[in-house]
Amino acid sequence: MTAAHPPLTESRRGKLACVGMGMTLGSHLTPLARSHIEQADVVFAGLSDGAVEMWLQRMHPDVRSLQPYYAEGKSRMQTYRQWVELMMTEVRAGKRVCGVFYGHPGIFAWSPHKAIEVARAEGFDAHMEPGISAEDCLYADLGIDPGRFGCQHFEASQLLFYERKIDPTGYLVLWQVGLVGDLSLKRFSTGAAYRQVLVDLLSQDYPLDHEVIIYRAATLPIQRPEIRRIALRELPAAELTTEHTVVLPPAAPLKLNLAMRERLAALDRETTMA
Amino acid sequence: MSNTIELLEAIGTDASLRHASRHELAEWLQQLGASDALTAAVSTGDSAALYAELGHMPMQQPQVTHTPGHEDDEVEQGELEPAPMPVPGQTNP
């Protein structure tokens, strides 16, 4: 039910909302995110699909794409800092600004978090509105419940750059494997040799014939999700972009923690006796 | 072109259309006079012609970073510094 209501009288002080567009055109945009877009003075678009950007342009007359700020050989962090500054310039000018990002605006997304932090520090209202992310789609399309065995998520390069502990009794989800090992922040893909380093690391916890699922959510509603199953040893040669996510199902059964169970049983006995 | 985006939105918001078979969806699009590129994309599963119709330029996936949570430690000369320890209560180092 939609009730007509008089518009709120708002001050013209600048403010910022960062919202998620969801993954699939037409299917995932929430009513509140759409309202943020429609009520903004200026909309900035950080989207990964040209058709989705065109859809957004139909919702607002002033949509400014953030895509042109990317460039091969230019540090992505420089690009992201520019995005923050672009949004903040309009906020400081007293505009209602909406940053629209694909999926969820706060997942694998530095600039929305940073822009909100900066806006708040300067005394402006700033808000993040969640969206349906690639992770949400992954659980639905692959039939995985992260609560069943647990689920670790790593940005693939971070797994190589830092010493992390992998738990092969739960799911392991690796993001941006197509870009794994890029120290420069200036490339948009690496290659088989870089993925081989990742496989070598993973082989410490998984057999090389362990199943690996390569996944990409649908961005157009006429697409189906892309799901490929290969062996871990085949990962270096697989065709991958930064949009593909790699999932490793558990390789070992959950192990009982007998010491903790005994402690809990003792607590139960104490509670029963009290 | 705008009709194509409208049709894509219609498919994305309708449960029957979103999960219709390729054949059913292509028939529905033909009845509505959809572009050849959109109908072909549905029939074949290849969206290349559709993106060509939309004038699509290759887009980078936004927000691809390799060190979420440690982005301020930008590596400029191939030297990787250890990540700072997270500070309790500080959500965005």
Please describe what this structure looks like.
Chain B: Residues 60-93 are annotated as: Disordered. The complex is a heterodimer of chains A (274) and B (93). With 274 residues, chain A is α/β, with parallel strands linked by helices. Chain A contains 9 helices and 10 strands. Chain A folds into 2 domains: 15-132, Cobalt-precorrin-4 Transmethylase, domain 1 (3-Layer(aba) Sandwich); 135-248, Methyltransferase, Cobalt-precorrin-4 Transmethylase, Domain 2. Chain A starts with 14 loop residues before the first strand and ends with a helix. Chain B has a domain at 2-53. At the A-B interface, α2, α3, α4 and α7 of A face α1 and α4 of B.
Tags for this model:
A: 274 residues, alpha/beta, Cobalt-precorrin-4 Transmethylase, domain 1, Methyltransferase, Cobalt-precorrin-4 Transmethylase, Domain 2, 2 domains, 34% helix, B: mainly alpha, globular, disordered C terminus
Instruction: Give unreliable regions of chain A as ranges.
Output: none
Beta-strand content of chain B: under 5%
Fraction of residues of chain A in helices?
25-40%
Name the average pLDDT of chain A.
Answer: 92
CATH hierarchy, class of the largest domain in chain A: Alpha Beta
Region (Disordered) (chain B): 60-93
List the helices and strands and how they pair.
The complex is a heterodimer of chains A (274) and B (93).
Chain A: E1 15-20, H1 31-39, E2 42-46, H2 50-57, E3 63-65, H3 76-92, E4 96-101, H4 110-121, E5 125-129, H5 134-142, H6 146-149, E6 151-155, H7 156-161, E7 171-175, H8 192-202, E8 211-216, E9 226-231, E10 245-248, H9 258-273
Parallel strand pairs in A: 1-4, 1-5, 2-3, 2-4, 6-7
Antiparallel strand pairs in A: 7-10, 8-9, 8-10
Helix pairs in contact in A: 3-4
Chain B: H1 2-13, H2 15-18, H3 22-31, H4 36-44, H5 48-53
Helix pairs in contact in B: 3-4
Summarize the structure.
The complex is a heterodimer of chains A (274) and B (93). By secondary structure, chain A is of the alpha/beta class.
